[in-house]
């Protein structure tokens, strides 16, 4: 007969040295979730409920927002928090459901590489956005870009 260990018994495995990354991942998910709610609802409020509402959103609206450092940093913070939050959630799912350690490590690396690449790409788009790049004389932006 095999005895089942008492579920309240202390775990006998020694604790690893260094920071508890799972704990800090858990804390990050809670903190970033709260911040993302504020950032996303602020984003939606400004874009959909102020001015003329959804009718104001066009290329000029985006150009105007990306010309302001406040909105650049707002959008970049939202981008970074969302990608890291999502990647950490995917990492948790992979750790919970993938049993083979090699596959698990490969998937976790792929998740972080994809998230890192998209964070870099998104940040570059926000901070290097130039509405006049590639504008020709037959474009409706020609006069704006000549000034």
From TrEMBL:
Please state where this protein is localized: Membrane
Principal localization reads membrane
Please provide the record's keywords in A-Z order. Answer: Heme, Iron, Membrane, Metal-binding, Transmembrane, Transmembrane helix
InterPro entries noted in UniProt: SQR/QFR_C/D, SuccDH_FuR_B_TM-su
TM spans (from-to): 25-50, 70-87, 107-129
Protein name according to UniProt: Succinate dehydrogenase hydrophobic membrane anchor subunit
């Amino acid at each position: 007969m095999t005895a089942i260990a008492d579920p309240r018994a202390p775990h006998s495995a020694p604790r690893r040295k260094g920071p508890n990354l799972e704990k800090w991942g858990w804390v990050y998910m809670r903190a970033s979730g709260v911040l993302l709610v504020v950032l996303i609802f602020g984003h939606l409020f400004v874009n959909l409920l102020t001015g003329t509402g959804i009718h104001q959103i066009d290329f000029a609206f985006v150009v105007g927002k990306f010309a302001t450092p406040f909105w650049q940093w707002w959008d970049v913070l939202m981008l970074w928090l969302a990608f890291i939050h999502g990647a950490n959630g995917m990492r948790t799912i992979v750790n919970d459901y993938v049993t083979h350690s090699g596959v698990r490590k490969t998937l976790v690396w792929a998740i972080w590489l994809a998230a890192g690449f998209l964070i870099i790409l998104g940040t570059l788009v926000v901070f290097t956005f130039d509405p006049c790049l590639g504008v020709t004389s037959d474009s409706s932006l020609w006069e704006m870009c000549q000034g």
